[in-house]
Task: structure prediction
Amino acid sequence: MPHDQSENETMLAPPKWMTRFFTWFCNDHLADAVLGDLLELYEWRCVKLGRRRANWFFLWNVLQFLQPFALKKSNRSINSNNYTMLKHYFKVSWRNLFRNKGYSIINISGLSAGMVVAMLIGLWIWDELSFDTNFENRSRLAEVMAHQSDGDISYTGTTVAMAPGIALREQYGDHFDGLSLASKNQSHVLSYGDKLLSGSGMWVQKDFPEMFTVRMTEGSRNVLADPSTLLISSSLAKALFGDADPMGKTILLDATTNFAVGGVYEDFPHNSTLYGTRLLLPWESKQNWMNSPDVLSSWTNHCGLTYVLLNDQANLPQINEQIKGLPQPFITGWKEELLIYPLAKLHLYNGSIDGQSAGGRIQYVWLVGIIGVFVLLLACINFMNLSTARSEKRAKEVGIRKAIGSVRTQLIWQFLSESLTITLFAFVLAVAITWLALPFFNTLADKQIVIPWGSSAFWLVSLSFVVFTGVVSGSYPAFYLSSFQPVKVLKGVMRGGRFASLPRQVLVVIQFTVSVALIVGTVIIYQQIQYGKSRPVGYSRNGLVSVSMNTTDQPGLFAALKNELLQTGAVEQVARSSQSAAHFRNNNSLDWRGKNVESEVFFRNVNISPDFGKTIGWSIVEGRDLSNELASDSSAALLNEESVRIMGFDDPVGEVITFWGKKYNVVGVVKDMLTQSPYDPMQPAVFLGDGWQGLITMRLNPDMPLRDALATIEPVFKEYNPTAPFEFSFVDEEFNKKFADEERVGSLAAFFAILAIFISCLGLFGLASYVAEQRSKEISIRKVLGASVATLWKMLSRDFVILVTISCFIAMPLAYFFMSDWLQNYQYHTAITWYIFALSALGAFAITLLTVSFQAIRAAVANPVKSLRAE
Result:
């Protein structure tokens, strides 16, 4: 039985780490005296309650026993007062929080506002930095780009010819694990049964889904080798088939070709290059016009995209050096080089100079990030200012604490704990505000950001953020207040000196410097937007509506459609074209008499019907417009003024130009139209009287309500274009999209500027309240001696106005420098005028006076008897 007894004793012993934890804290004598009793209690609980519950009780007894004692081990000491002291710190912090409700509200409001900005900006930056991370091969994915140059003109873009991609596969295939040609995203009409939808899709080669690790919910990625099979997104599958199984079902594409659904993939996220792609179509399909011999063999027809998946051994700089001259033997008139650019950098580093990455969207990321840091800094400054301003009220507290034995370290921890308490309250409030503000912020920033509630990394970063903010905002008050000498404080002879308020004044200047700079920057951004919008466009956008049709090439159809639309009374003019008046996309070369063969110029080429100019309202400056009465106008062309200037024609009417081998007679010249970026110079354009014209442009009747006009013309389009849904776009809305980036930056800047001003005003309000309180007796005496309310208001406001004046003198040169540099990114930009700074300064002064005046007037009209009686 000795063996059984030993086994039983071992069985009833607690885990070794628990006893070691106990003895590690205790000295040997104490451990021997207590551990035996705890083990006996443990054995009894094992029998009564079971081993698991006995373990928990044993650990609880150990922790309860260790709490009140001071224990030492291995030169480490644990002070029994630490726990009590910690409780004391936060108890005092809690009492101070509620004892000074006004200052607490100001501090918490200011800090929470700064935290909201920091959180929103942090989530925005994370969304930008995580662009395309949904692709597992992101680090090895790259896109082929073409860098074209001709004299002083250079351009680098992702739209490339198809022949270079084929040459890369044949000559340099050992560098790649995959290569895929692809079309740009194009709108397609899909029908299944009685459902008719439109969706954006790409023609891609079979390796594309595997290269981009498309996440399948049903089916396989590797089905695009079959030219009759396609892949669709989950949202499109839901829209077409509802809850039914989409696999194997047949979809009619563009009313011409049937495709079987071979798989369903997850929708690409908003921060993805492929966002909005609802269809992946097989490259080998006969409907894919890009898979034709003339397109695949062309080095000059830049019409598609090429993606590569680099292998692990690929050296991208060396590859680019090898392939850059690949197109040049096949091109005359301009210089073109190939460039493979990593997909991971394309979104943020999309600026380019001579084919090399130079800035891009990353500049916005840095700019917004810096703004976030400064706004949070403003909130921390508020806390520092109010804490140091109230230092005299807490001076005696510090003196008494030091007199009864508190060391400076304990006082520092006390004030830091107060800061952390306030910061924690502000953080909770900031999270709630951020959650409520995200829908509005997403609209401003064109994002789909959500708070990652379930992410441990988010909460770890947030906790670090709270500690950092609390320490930064509380560090100066903690070290400042803890430095008071108790003898001077308790004698009442402590004086701050003439420079005691200097740190607070410096911090106020910093606050308003940032705020004024943001105001100036926001005004200049909006002025640049309005400058672009007010630029003459050369035609009338109001009331123009465009509708895409795939049946316009049927004989007589357009004439019948036009006639019926005009008879409805909802439409005044109807025309056809290959592109919208808001944006000319095509870019090709022309030949003309006297052309310099050593220099190539690209022209925006647009196919139009004779009524196009009359419909959009352009101006003929020379010659005539196209005419329906002249059959020969199918071989006629119109030039814009910029084209005439480039060609060097003194009398362009009657000249002959050649486009894609066909000769056209120039019959007129139109006024330049703004169809590209509103901040770029006018571009040469040519308007041809023939070719594909699948876009219907109409000018609606201005006397008919818009909703009624659209309802009237919809049945007409359904009659003449039954295989497509009635989808329209307003030309003025398309044009306004050109300002989207600038408007987004301006809106974000205005949003942050308002919050920065709010935070700064909170700080001013608190300081003004403190100053009025400190000078209450002086104000009372002056009032008794006859000082007016206006005199007292002026006295209390003067110092703050001086500080804001200094801020303006610092902020304005800084804002001018940075905004001048920003405007240089635009060839067509506004001038920075003096009145922008004057209005910003007046706004800052008005905000300051409104903020300070409340407390100043309140103190000036107070009854002096109350203050002097206390004396």
Notes: Residues 1-11, 68-81 have pLDDT under 50 and may be disordered. The two ends are 90 Å apart (CA to CA).
